[in-house]
Design a protein that fits this description.
Belongs to the adenylate kinase family. The chain has a five-stranded parallel sheet with strand order 2-3-1-4-8, sandwiched between helices. The chain has a three-stranded antiparallel sheet with strand order 6-5-7. The chain has one domain (4-114, 173-212): P-loop containing nucleotide triphosphate hydrolases (Rossmann fold, 3-Layer(aba) Sandwich), CATH 3.40.50. Helix content is 46%, strand content 16%. α1 (15-26) packs across α8 (199-212) and α6 (115-123) packs across α7 (163-186). It has helices at residues 15-26, 33-39, 55-61, 67-80, 93-102, 115-123, 163-186, 199-212, and strands at 4-9, 29-32, 84-87, 107-112, 125-128, 134-136, 155-156, 190-194. The model has no long low-confidence stretch (mean pLDDT 95). It is α/β, with parallel strands linked by helices and 213 residues long. It is globular, with a radius of gyration of 17 Å. It binds BIS(adenosine)-5'-pentaphosphate.
């Protein structure tokens, strides 16, 4: 049976970067609520009686999308996966409790990165509008300015990577998601990784844990 890996970290800690590589090298499904919600951001949730009518409005304000919407996405994705690396979930204690009900975990990793570095990484991130490849204007620039190395697509800034929304996302993270990190730490299952090394350096540490899981 494939491994069940959970990758935790603040916005910009490198969860997406590491998860993609883990999924490819360990033959795991990459389950990411951020990408799933971006692909469904105009989904009509008006009949569910929430504050907003689509995920887009929550995401652009830096707030969390309601648990009922996200829990359903995760449950379906995990049921379909043999092994997986889960990224972007759980984001609050309620989601963590739900996760415990629907699956078991072989490893829980936390990418530790300072706040100053997080802001720099997110505001400098560029993504390919066609294939989703990830760049950074300074740390991982494309060969040609504004053009994806992989597919030639246009590189854009994510709508929630403006400085104002990044600050709000970090506030939401401290309030809602840090308690989730503390919960796994208190359970004694959290493996903390220095997320401020180069992407290759972080991957070496992450891969060592996953190999032994
Ligand atoms: P989501 O897409 O999950 O965003 P996030 O958690 O804020 O994480 P990011 O994807 O922004 O960052 P990352 O850690 O993956 O970093 P990356 O590898 O790209 O969520 C977006 C929104 O969706 C939320 O705000 C919320 O509204 C909603 N949502 C999602 N999940 C939800 C849930 N469970 N419940 C409710 N709502 C939910 O790296 C960042 C940058 O740094 C890149 O440019 C990269 O090139 C660079 N970089 C990476 N590693 C390094 C390194 N080692 N050194 C230097 N640069 C690096």
């Amino acid at each position: 049976m494939g491994k069940h890996i959970l990758l935790l970290g603040a916005p910009g800690a490198g969860k997406g970067t590491q998860s993609k590589r883990l999924a490819s090298e360990f033959d795991l499904e990459h389950v990411t609520t951020g990408d799933a919600l971006r692909a469904n951001k105009d989904m009509d949730i008006s009949d569910m009686d929430f504050e907003y009518d689509t995920p887009r409005e929550y995401m652009e304000s830096g707030d969390l999308v309601p648990d009922d919407v996200v829990n359903e996405i995760v449950k379906t994705a995990l049921q379909e996966a043999d092994g997986y690396v889960l990224d972007g979930y759980p984001r609050n204690i309620e989601q963590a409790e739900y996760l415990t009900e629907i699956t078991d975990l072989d490893a829980v990793l936390y990418l530790d990165v300072s706040e100053e570095e997080l802001v720099e990484r997110l505001t400098g991130r560029r993504v390919c509008d066609d294939c989703g490849a990830n760049y950074h204007v300074e740390f991982a620039p494309p060969e040609e300015d504004g053009v994806c190395d992989d597919c030639g697509g246009e590189l854009i800034q994510r709508e929630d990577d403006t400085e104002e929304t990044v600050r709000e996302r970090l506030t939401v993270y401290h309030k809602n998601t840090e308690p989730v990190v503390n919960h796994y730490r208190d359970e004694g299952v959290l493996v903390e990784i220095d997320g401020e090394q180069t992407p290759d350096g972080v991957f070496d540490d992450v891969a060592e844990v996953v190999e032994d899981a």
